[in-house]
């Protein structure tokens, strides 16, 4: 089974938690889904989030598979195997935290921990029909997560149920205080983004059923923020993993992405940082008008495995709506919504003010509650 890299039991008898293979667990090698780290020595200490989970009396059930080096969005991994997407076995599980999402969706764990640098929690959560949160940048500890340095990456939880996701945040996020549901008729901004029209309409209807008062919003820097986010991740991932190229140690897709990333210039990075500042300010300004912002997590249904292997366009189309919020650092949650597309659940993304992860989660809980029965 390719959902887990390794299965073991560690800790108490509380909630079952799966941990992404880019996060250290003492006594177990951190391989980041890559042959390049096949001979890695066991980690000497736990990541801080792992210590928090064990201190809560929860039980770690294993390390989950991932897109190699967390540098991909499909979850396809020809070295470790590709996790099956429990809600749509013919479609990609999403990446890079593929095994974490699949483990929760399959009922193999109550909660899973992943990391999100350009959508790597939210995309697999949306693909597999569960909830996933990218917290405010810096709010959840990255100590013991790989790569060690990132201005984009956030460690965050997956769960099928918002109550479990909120419980996870109370454990891994110091100071997280769960909030009651938002008031009726809460004012929300629904972003005008390039998206499948039917999917956009279904998600808008879901927001209406939750009792929210939605207003259309445009962010002029949104597309530039996607490009800038890609520039930053390319620059930082080349610095972290460039030394692994040219040795036959990594898969062809990741090797090609890293070699392309090597061409990112300091001038391009400086320009991307200017976009980061402008876009972050633009999102902040929108959130002065609205309690949260809403948008689809993905612009279309997840590609099939066949499409993902044969079409770079299908893969590139998975992250345009998530990556901008890695650049800006705002908390972003995806919650599954059932639509009339072959029984698939798709993700509605909820974005909030920096540091107000509790509010984002409360909106997610209200959305989920509105869909019960």
Automatic annotation (TrEMBL):
Gene3D superfamilies: Amidase signature (AS) domain
Residue intervals of the Amidase domain: 17-173, 248-361
SUPFAM superfamilies: Amidase signature (AS) enzymes
Pfam families attached to this UniProt entry: Amidase
Superkingdom, natural source: Bacteria
Protein name: Amidase
Native source species: Pseudomonas izuensis
Lineage of producing organism: Bacteria, Pseudomonadati, Pseudomonadota, Gammaproteobacteria, Pseudomonadales
């Amino acid at each position: 089974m390719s959902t887990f890299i390794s299965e073991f039991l560690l800790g108490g008898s509380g909630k079952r938690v799966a941990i992404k293979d880019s996060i250290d667990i003492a006594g177990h090698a951190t391989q980041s889904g890559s042959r390049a780290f096949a001979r890695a020595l066991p980690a000497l200490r736990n990541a801080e989030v792992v210590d928090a989970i064990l201190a809560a009396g929860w039980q770690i059930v294993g390390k989950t598979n991932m897109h190699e080096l967390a540098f991909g969005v499909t979850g396809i991994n020809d070295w470790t195997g590709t996790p099956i997407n429990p809600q749509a076995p013919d479609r990609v599980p999403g990446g890079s935290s593929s095994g974490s999402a699949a483990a929760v969706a399959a009922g193999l764990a109550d909660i899973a921990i992943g990391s999100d640098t350009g959508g790597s929690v939210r995309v697999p959560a949306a693909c597999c029909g569960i909830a996933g949160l990218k917290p405010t940048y810096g709010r959840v500890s990255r100590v013991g997560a790989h790569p060690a340095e990132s201005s984009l990456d956030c460690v965050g939880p997956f769960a099928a149920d918002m109550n479990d996701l909120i419980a996870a945040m109370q454990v891994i996020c110091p100071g997280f205080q769960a909030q009651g549901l938002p008031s009726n008729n809460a004012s929300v901004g629904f972003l005008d983004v390039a998206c499948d029209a039917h999917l956009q309409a279904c998600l808008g209807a879901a927001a209406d059923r939750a009792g929210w008062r939605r207003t259309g919003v445009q962010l002029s820097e949104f597309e530039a923020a996607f490009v800038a986010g890609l520039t930053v991740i390319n620059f930082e991932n080349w610095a972290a993993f460039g030394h692994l190229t040219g040795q036959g140690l990594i898969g062809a897709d990741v090797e090609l992405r890293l070699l392309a990333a090597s061409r990112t210039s300091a001038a391009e990075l400086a320009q991307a940082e200017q976009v980061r500042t402008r876009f972050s300010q633009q999102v902040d300004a929108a959130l002065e008008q609205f309690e949260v912002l809403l948008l689809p997590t993905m612009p279309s249904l997840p590609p099939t495995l066949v499409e993902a292997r044969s079409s770079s366009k299908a893969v590139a189309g998975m992250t345009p709506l998530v990556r901008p919020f890695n650049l800006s650092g705002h908390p972003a949650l995806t919650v599954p919504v059932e639509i009339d597309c072959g029984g698939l659940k798709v993700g509605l993304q909820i974005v909030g003010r920096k540091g107000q992860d509790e509010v984002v989660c409360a909106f997610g809980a209200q959305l989920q509650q509105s869909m019960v029965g």
